[in-house]
Amino acid sequence: MRRVVITGQGAVTPLGNTAQEFWEGLKAGKNGIAPITHFDASETGVTVAAEVKDFDPTLYMEKKQTKRMDAFSIYGIAAAKQALADSGLVLGENVDPHRTGVIVSSGIGGMTTIQEQVIKMKERGPKRVAPFFVPMSIGNMAAGNISIEIGAKGVCSCVVTACASATNAIGDAFRSIKHGYQDVIFAGGAEATICEIGISGFAALTALTTAEDPNRASIPFDKERGGFVMGEGAGVVVLEELEHAKARGANILAEVVGYGANSDAYHMTSPTPDGSGAGRCMLLAMEEAGISPEQVDYINAHGTGTPTNDGAETTAIKYALGEEVAKTVAISSSKSMTGHLLGAAGAIEAMACVGALRENFVPPTINYQVADEACDLDYVPNVGRERQVDYALTNSLGFGGHNAVLCLKKWAGE
Fold first, then answer.
1. Would 281 be classed as within a structural domain?
2. pLDDT value of residue 271
3. Which of 129, 106, 303 is nearest to 192 (CA)?
4. What is the tens place of the pLDDT at every residue in 114-156?
5. Active-site choice (156, 195, 244, 302)
6. Is the pLDDT of residue 278 over 80?
């Protein structure tokens, strides 16, 4: 079996519009949540979100292209082009484009475009629907557009597993390279659902917080948590076969060593109360990595801030690691700072693990105030900390019972 490493990263996030800005924001405990500006949300009952800020798409494409793409595709292309530049890859020179793929997911796709065009059809008739409506809205088009933009001619797909999408995308890319089907894959996720129907839909499900204070809105593992905060953006990592990366002198950031994927087979939106679904998924990732629970130093939790998720995920971590070991592991939720990027969440959270592995620093769970007896582990409250991190897990749990976990290892030059 071939080994798989990460050699490039790109990101557009509520904390910053590059991978480095995102990581620096995480380390500093920066809050990317603020009042919604994309539209008038006064009638939705939800007032805050984690929006992308000061983003200039013309840094990555011509202005006329932006008119033919939904924001999720634009964010995805920006993140992928950043990752390409970071990796030092030149398709056709130091990598075969036919063995270079793209697996970039979106949980929902072009929701804003769908909303706008349905309204236009209703108000002005079906003949006024935009010619690019379909290619702007379908969820695979971030992957498709990235492939076109960078010239990757290998596998091109989009895993749709709700909030687990990007983690499944990276996991599937890992397996594809490990088993010899590709040499390089751009993997991750992109999402842009901060619009009327996106906020209203999740609010109707009572999944979103109604808190108005940005500092008490996304509060994973806090007893006063009341729902998640919608985020948006994209994250893309370059996965590469180890010997291929070495041969071209690539800067290796971390190694992907394990992947778990399974289903709760329990409920559309609620996880299994005993933690066995997500817990077993973590065990699968550790098993492929060949490590014991005692070797896990950091877990980037799914940590949405919903009443149901955080208690169940705590139970799942104990299921996977054992009660005593679980208490020794540093756990944090990036969503306390970024909100929930849905199908893109797993990508930026894998990047948070890369940062932790490279710098031996665990980012915090910010705005944590009130302890919950059902969430009794070390969630690195409020301030990040220095800690030796050799192995990290990142959890993603999606509506429909989808569980996905990656295990990443520090790259020490071996």
1. yes
2. 87
3. 106
4. 999 999 999 999 999 999 999 999 999 999 999 999 999 999 9
5. 302
6. yes
CB atoms within 10 A of CB 344: 38
What gap in Å lies between CA 205 and CA 88, rounded to an integer?
A: 44
CATH code (residue 175): 3.40.47.10
Catalytic residue from among 163, 353, 375, 407: 163
Q: What tens digit of pLDDT does each residue of 55-101 get?
A: 999 999 999 999 999 999 999 999 999 999 999 999 999 999 999 99
Q: Which domain holds residue 44?
A: 4-247
Residue 296 pLDDT > 90: yes
C-alpha angle 305/163/360, rounded to 5°? 70
Whether residues 98 and 180 fall in one domain: yes
DSSP state for residue 370 in the 8-state scheme:
S
Mean pLDDT rounded to a whole number for the chain: 97
Helix (H, G, I), strand (E, B) or coil at 170: helix
The string of DSSP letters for 312-363 reads HHHHHHHHHH-HHHHTTSEEE-THHHH-B-GGGHHHHHHHHHHHHHHHTEEP
pLDDT in tens, 231-262: 999 999 999 999 999 999 999 999 999 999 99
Of the residues 340, 375, 402, 407, only one is catalytic, namely 340
Q: Secondary structure of 176-191 in the HEC alphabet?
A: HHHCCCCCEEEEEEEE
Average pLDDT for 111-116: 98
Considering the domain architecture, whether residues 156 and 294 belong to the same structural domain is answered as no
Co-location of 207 and 82 in the same domain: yes
73 and 159 share a domain? yes
- pTM, to two decimals: 0.97
Residue with tokens 């929930």, as numbered in its chain: 340
163 assigned to active site: yes
Sign of the torsion angle spanned by Cα atoms 360, 26, 343, 61: negative
Q: Are residues 376 and 264 in the same domain?
A: yes
Residue 137: enclosing H or E segment and its boundaries?
helix 133-137
Residue 364 domain-assigned (yes or no): yes
